[in-house]
Amino acid sequence: MKICVTGGAGYIGSHVCKALAEAGHEVVVYDNLSTGHRSFVRWGPFRHGDIRDTARFRACLREFKPDGIIHFAASAYVGESVVDPGKYFSNNVGGTLSILEAMRDEGCPAIVVSGTCAVYGEPKEVPIAESCPPNPINPYGASKLFMERMLADFATAHDVRWMSLRYFNAAGSSPRGEIGELHEPETHLIPRVMFAALGSIDAIDIFGTDYPTPDGTCIRDYIHVDDLARAHIRALEHLVDGGESMALNLGTERGASVREIIRGVEKISGRQVPARAMERRAGDPAVLVADAAKAREVLGWKAERNLETMLEDAWNFLTARKDA
């Protein structure tokens, strides 16, 4: 297949491009480099542009005539979305609308989008299945849910096939270390715990130690970025083969607490991680763990890499960059 990957210079997008190329597919990356890295574009041609520039994106589709799109070009910080909701509705909703209009005009038939478990808000049942009613509690989750509603409407009106992959917490890096998690600023737990182990920050802040969990800290479902990459390829193949449009959860179906992450980093690094107990953050549920049974059924996919592998790969990428 020929695949256009929006946001392909970013963390997850670059891993998907690598996996696509290794599977024999042709890749073109479309990215404005606002958060991505040009050095991560290694597996196909690059076109610089913003997804909200419909004419420019349409020209990219006209040039490459892709069989489908995998869409990662979105803003993805919950806290930022609360203080700057306009950015999230402009980029996530407006940008996706621009992509869909270009697809309609150029006859591109299929799209897989980067979804999120944030569409569920604070779920009443865990593990979380797709049958859980969406109820986002922040603009980021709301923007992603509206993206799905647009996808469904374009499917009805223009026969665009789509899949939204609602994943939980992406983690890890390419085992060979050529690409990995590199955000500026970095807000994700695992790299920040590693920063604390390396002395790059004074300590890791633990937001809440009194949750109703075994050690009092939040539990999340962490999934290796390479497992996510495999799922995106299978999702697009499913659509190109005429499969049904839908939203699917992706996760390991196993949770790890903040303190478990800290202990895991201490084990693989051989270093102590200084930590500070802080007050809970508003809107942080105690436990978020996926029910990924539907992804197994529809895509024949399941997560293969465990937490220790995620931490080892992330540590190797981070320390290699620090030593470079």
In short:
With 324 residues, this protein is an alpha/beta fold.
How would you characterize this protein structure?
The chain has 324 residues and is of the alpha/beta class. The protein has helices spanning 11-22, 54-64, 78-83, 85-106, 139-158, 189-198, 225-240, 258-269, 293-299, 307-323; strands at residues 2-6, 26-31, 46-48, 68-71, 110-116, 161-167, 169-171, 204-207, 219-220, 222-224, 246-250, 256-257, 275-278, 287-288. The protein is built from 10 helices and 14 strands. A 7-stranded parallel β-sheet has the order 3-2-1-4-5-6-11, sandwiched between helices. Strands 12-9-14 form a 3-stranded mixed β-sheet. It has a two-stranded parallel ribbon with strand order 7-10. Strand 1 (2-6), helix 1 and strand 2 form a beta-alpha-beta unit. Helix 4 (85-106) packs parallel to helix 5 and helix 8 crosses helix 10 (307-323). It is globular, with a radius of gyration of 19 Å.
